[in-house]
């Protein structure tokens, strides 16, 4: 999955961010491309290797028109827990 500068993405465990830059750096003499992601909630800057995007779960933000479909999909697998059951100790 490829992203563009200025694109909003979700980075799991960090939240929503904006791709500020796509850059190349060498680590231990091995060149690698990175997304520089500015996290919206705290303005921190995170470097994510392009080759790791899929494994870390970075993804595009859902479109507003798709939200109702997502809720419908989630509701299909939802079940109400039985009342009166105690949690195991």
Q: Could you name the key traits of this structure?
A:
89 residues, alpha+beta, 5 strands, elongated
If you had to describe this structure to a student in words, what would you say it looks like?
The protein is an alpha+beta fold. The protein has helices at 53-56, 67-76, and strands spanning 8-11, 15-27, 30-39, 45-49, 59-60. Strands 4-3-2-1-5 form a 5-stranded antiparallel beta sheet. A hairpin with a 2-residue loop joins strand 2 and strand 3. The termini are far apart.
Topology pattern, helix = H, strand = E: EEEEHEH
User: Which structural class matches the secondary elements?
Assistant: alpha+beta
Share of β-strand residues: 35-45%
Rg over alpha carbons = 19 Å
Mean pLDDT: 89
Shape estimate: elongated
- Helical proportion? 10-25%
How far the N terminus sits from the C terminus, by CA atoms, comes to 44 Å
Number of helices: 2
How many E strands?
5
Low-confidence stretches: none
SSE layout and pairings?
Blueprint: E1 8-11, E2 15-27, E3 30-39, E4 45-49, H1 53-56, E5 59-60, H2 67-76
Antiparallel strand pairs: 1-2, 1-5, 2-3, 3-4
In short:
Helices cover 16% and strands 38% of the residues. The chain has helices at 53-56, 67-76; strands at residues 8-11, 15-27, 30-39, 45-49, 59-60. Strands 4-3-2-1-5 form a five-stranded antiparallel β-sheet.
